[in-house]
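User: I'll paste a sequence; please echo it back and then give the predicted structure.

Assistant: Echoing your sequence first, then the prediction.
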Amino acid sequence: MAAGARRGLWLLLLLGLALRLAYALPQPTLSQYFHAGGGDAGWYLANGWGLLSGQEHGSIRGIPFYSSVIPTPPLYLLFTGLVQQVFPDHETILAIRALQCLASIATAWIAGRLGALVSGDERVGVLAAGLAALHPALIVDPAHIATETLYIFFIALSLWLYAESAVAATELGRSWLKPGHALSLSAAALALATLTRAVAALFPLAIALHLFILSRRGLVASWKRKWLLFIAVFALVVSAWTLHNLLLWGRLVLVSDQFVPALWRGVESQDGSPQENDAILLGGAQPPKPEGCLVDCKYHHPTELYLNRIRQLAGADLGGILARRVTELAHSLLQPHGTTHFGDESVREAALRWLGDDRSVAGLGRLLNIEGFFIKLLTWVFHYAALVFGVMGIFLSRPRWAVALPIASFALYTLLAHLVLLSLPRYIFPIEVFMLAFAAVALVDLADKWRAKRG
């Protein structure tokens, strides 16, 4: 990379880190502990503390934890729990936010590497890193006690390491890692992503398909051996959580026990709060407490209860369920993640009302004065630039398909997974980093054509 491009890259990354810290650190801290009723922050903090406390159940700051029936993958809980072991309450939130800001800007750097690898052009890498560094939603997310930032970081790390192995294996360029080392590290990073959000659990199948395609094209040898190495490392890391639950609590957990509940929420049109979901599943009866629970512990419904409800719904209106899944996925894809942090009023709906019913100067003034209007508008611009130019960039990356295919396949995998499981904008958001890398390919190509046209 030329010295000027390198300086530009680091300036963009430093600016992105400064923006993340400037937003995250001044936010309220102690209130994060008391979000159990209206958000995930208090739950993650309490259960993270409980997981490392050695206690099966108990309560901290008035929020109960029950370590033997944790429904989610453990990595984010371990992260919050470890930080709480080191710092007092106020400093814990600041430390979590600062570490998430570092992970987020590292993700922006990885986006740059992915852009350079799929295009063979360092200019694309600088632009991709800049887009990820300055994306409003990626700037805002590290301020929140939620899994998005770490999950996206580990997925990006895994795909970058795998892309490096593909570059080395197919002789598309030099890689600083040997293919076997890159493959093993990629599998470990994907396992950590899966232990953050379970939805990535089946992505190794996409890796197997990619290695098979490379083998059929004569680009790699012994694809089965390479995939067995990948899946062995992946399974070794992921199985630590399974062994933990088996040895301590006699409970078989493969990453998470929330797959069937997420499938049920995908087909249930009446789902809502945990209390409303309990009422639907139990016919209005109160859920029993877990055996041995000494505090107000959450009851986890048997898998068969969800499956019975799914069968009942599918038998009654299978066509309606399919239509709802497509509609929900489309909404989650087209609605940018991160706008609700700046007020509840929708800029899109307000703009449509102004265009359809008003079109007056006074109405335009009211539109512009919506809380967080400009940051929401910028989020929409980045989101649709990622989608539109990202699709163009995937098409333009065909000459280096061996590297581009697994990165693009993660976006497809995520969409297919949430076509079946519950879909929300924040569940689809992880693909945005990779679409930005492809968008940079398209934008550099358009700039080159524009300059060529001008002579």
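Residues 303-334 form the longest helix (32 residues). Residues 56 and 68 are 6 Å apart (CA to CA).
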